[in-house]
Amino acid sequence: MTEVTQMKCACESCLCVVSLSDAVMKDEKAYCSAACANGHPDGTGCGHSGCGCQ
Question: Are 36 and 11 in contact (CB under 8 A)?
Fold first, then answer.
């Protein structure tokens, strides 16, 4: 049996893979940042290099 330790950020437009130990959890989904977890309320992305989510 293999334990999942990383997964894609739950934000649809985000390209980030997040470690579950570092993830921002909301509604039992893992996000790479508070911006993604909150639905990008101010229109800014997650700020991670190479990712253009918003």
Answer: yes
Q: Where are the domains of the chain?
A: 6-37
Task: Give the model's pLDDT for residue 5.
Answer: 96
Q: Is 54 helix (H, G, I), strand (E, B) or coil?
A: coil
Is residue 7 within 8 A of residue 18, CB to CB? The reply is yes
Task: State the pTM of this model.
Answer: 0.89
* Tokens linked to 18: 């997040």
| Local confidence band at 1 (pLDDT 50, 70, 90 cut-offs) | confident
- DSSP E strands in the chain: the ranges are 6-8, 17-19, 24-26, 29-31
And the tokens for 15? 């390209």
pLDDT given for residue 25 in this prediction: 97
